[in-house]
Design a protein that fits this description.
The protein has 9 helices and 30 strands.
Length: 463
């Protein structure tokens, strides 16, 4: 009798467990489309990298009522390595909870992942993270093309921390974002700003059967602690710089120009450096220069004036020239190549520092230097304001007629002064003479550009 009671109790327990087990619902019965909240990239197997072979993996994910992948069934793949890599990634995916008739259900989701080693944008991570199929229809998932940076929550600005939010957003056939809902956030304070910023993003629309389609997709919005202090203009700049980095091949230097070392810093032996974010346009010219915080203003001004003369091989995307970004560090050391200081100039700098060299002025020579080649001024493309102005530039003209160590004596604006000093380094003179011999002398060059006369000449003047 006891054994019968035990058997009945066991059957009763099994019946309770069976009743508690959620129903595995067909996709057609779900109250809303499946939404993937969190993804994991497919790591390209080393064997596929070396062979360059593609793989297509098909499988069915059994997703629990909590949106997690419980198991994988019906897996087929071209290679064992590809199948293992795809399933390992899929197990880490997270989906929005599914309902059927208002009741939570689990569901079976057919998925196809294309592993293309030759299309991978990184040495380790495959683009298969963004290519898959839901419900058996292969699609290219809508992806952000331009992402504005969210405003950091005011509630966390006193003690900012890194964080993120996952936002589900509707994207139409033209890549325009619409309704956005935060599904998950590392801090509740990130939910509102994330949902507010995503509709302003620009997307590449989803593709199905070779046609653009409207779809919902889930994106991750990052909140960097250092962005808590950014102004709207700084957020705008950083967003643009991130976009400018999204090219196939970055810009590279084609030709450079000497940098004018600020005279007072040079003579006082004050070194330093500056870090610049340089945006290069499709024409290979510098389009924008953004110094990093804390940069010395004089060093930045000198670098900006020099970069107006530089040329680059532009960045490319799909073999077409596009805007690109370079992060440049300039170290202000007179021995570096960018300052065009030969041994004679370095000796002159040393003599000026210790007072052992005195350079005569125009009154101390028999014949003053005469200009034989002059270059017009150039300004960076992002220069704001007029290009007219006045400056008095002092320099030392050597025995070969080359201007050395230009110095801004006075100027109508700092930008005009640095542009003038930089242009002077490209001028050439008939050298001054003393007793029939070429000599070094100090000269002051007045430079003036009127709004109606941009090519006004300049000539040495008595100091």
């Amino acid at each position: 009798m006891r054994s019968v009671l035990v058997s009945l109790a066991l059957l009763s327990t099994l019946a309770v467990h069976a009743a508690d087990k959620p129903r595995l619902a067909p996709l057609a019965e779900l109250d809303q489309p499946v939404e993937r909240l969190e993804t994991a990239a497919v790591i390209v197997p080393e064997a596929l990298k070396q062979s360059g072979r593609d793989d297509t993996v098909s499988m069915t994910l059994i997703v629990s009522t909590q949106g997690r992948v419980e198991r994988i069934e019906q897996l087929t793949s071209t290679t064992p390595e590809g199948g293992a890599a795809a399933s390992q990634a899929a197990k880490k995916w997270l989906f929005a909870r599914a309902f059927s008739g208002g009741e939570p259900v689990s569901f079976a989701l057919p998925v196809t992942i294309a592993i293309r080693p030759t299309q991978a944008t990184d040495a380790a991570v495959d683009t298969g993270a963004a290519v898959g199929s839901f419900g058996g229809v292969v699609v290219a998932v809508a992806e952000p093309r331009f992402e504005w940076i969210p405003e950091y929550p005011a509630e966390l600005q006193a003690s900012p921390v890194d964080g993120y939010a996952l936002v589900s957003v509707f994207v139409d056939e033209d890549g325009r974002a619409g309704d956005a809902v935060t599904e998950l956030a590392s801090r509740t304070e990130f939910s509102g700003p994330a949902a507010a910023i995503v509709p302003t993003w620009i997307f590449t629309p989803a593709m199905s059967g070779g046609k653009r389609v409207a779809t919902r997709t889930t994106v991750k919005v990052d909140f960097a602690a250092n962005s808590a202090a950014w102004t709207p203009a700084e957020r705008d700049l950083q967003a643009r710089l991130r976009y400018l980095r999204s090219y196939d091949e970055g810009p590279s230097e084609k030709s450079s120009a000497p940098v004018v070392f600020p005279y007072e810093a040079l003579i006082s032996d004050k070194g330093g450096g500056v870090m610049l974010n340089v945006v290069v346009g499709p024409d290979g010219r510098v389009a924008r220069i953004v110094p990093e915080p804390g940069s010395d203003p004089d060093y930045v001004a000198a670098a900006r004036a020099s970069l107006a003369w530089w040329e680059f091989f532009p960045a490319t995307r799909a073999e077409q020239p596009v805007f690109g970004h370079i992060r440049m560090q300039l170290s202000f050391d007179p021995r570096r190549d960018e300052f065009d200081h030969d041994d004679a100039t370095l000796a002159l700098i040393a003599g000026l520092r210790d007072g052992s060299i005195v350079v005569p002025g125009l009154k101390q020579v028999d014949t003053p230097p005469r200009p034989k080649k002059q270059e017009n001024l150039r300004f960076p493309a992002d220069h704001e304001g007029p290009i007219s102005g006045e400056a008095l530039i002092e320099c030392i003209i050597d025995r070969e007629g080359r201007p050395r160590l230009p110095r801004i004596i006075r100027t109508s604006t700092p930008e005009f002064g640095w542009a003038a000093a930089t242009a002077v380094t490209r001028w050439r003179f008939e050298p001054a003479t003393q007793g029939g011999e070429a000599v070094v002398c100090r000269a002051r060059l007045p430079i003036r550009i009127a709004p109606a006369n941009p090519d006004a000449p300049a000539s040495p003047a008595t100091p």
